[in-house]
Amino acid sequence: MYQCKYRLARLFFMAILTLACAFAGAETTVYKYRSKSGVTSFSDIEPIGLDYQQIRFDCYACQIDSLVNWRNTKLYLSEYSKAIHQASSQHQIDPALVRAIIHAESHFNAKAISKQGAQGLMQLMPETAAWLGVKNPLVAKQNIQGGVKHLARLVKKYRGNISLASAAYNAGETTIKKYGGIPPYPETQVYVERVEILLKRYQQEYEKSGYTSS
To answer: Which end of the chain is more exposed for a tag (fewer CB within 10 A), N or C?
Structure first.
C-alpha cells in the first residue's frame, strides 16, 4: 500500500511540475536519479552527491509561450570555443550559426536529454548520432562535431537558406518536403524565428571581437 501511494504521489508531482513549467514558459529541466534507498526519483532541484540524468521536456527555443526575451537574453560566447571553431572550419559553416543552434536546442547544456530522446548540446537523436558517427552524444566535442556536420549539410541542401535549414534541423527534412517549406507547427515557427535572432546577435558579437564569422 505504501509503495502504491508513493508511486501515485511521484506521478502527481511529475504532472504538476510539467504543467507548471509549461505554463510558466521556464526552462523545463528535471533531474532523474536513484535515491540512496534505490528508488528512481525525479526533482526540479539538482541532486547533491548522487549520480543523475537531466531530462528536458522540449528544446529550449520551442516553447511557444516562453518568457525569454530573445533579443537581450545572455549569450554564450566562450563555451566550447575550440570544438565549435574546429568543427565550423572543417565543415565551412558560420560558427555564429552553430552557437545559435546550440543555444536554441539545449541552452548550452551538454547533458540535456529531451523527452523524444535527443541528446547533448545539439540535441542529436540516437539514430542521427549513429549515422553521423557520434559514439557518445553526451560528450560535447563529439556532439558538436556530429551536429555541425549535420547542420552544414542542411545549409548546403537548402542553398544557404538558414530558415529552411533550421526548420529542417528542428522538424526534419521529410517535414520540410511535405509542406514545401517551414511547416505550420507553432513550435518550429518560433524556433526558426528565435534561431535567426540569436544568429544575428552572435554574428554581431563575433564582429565586435574582430572575428569574421562568415
So the answer is: N
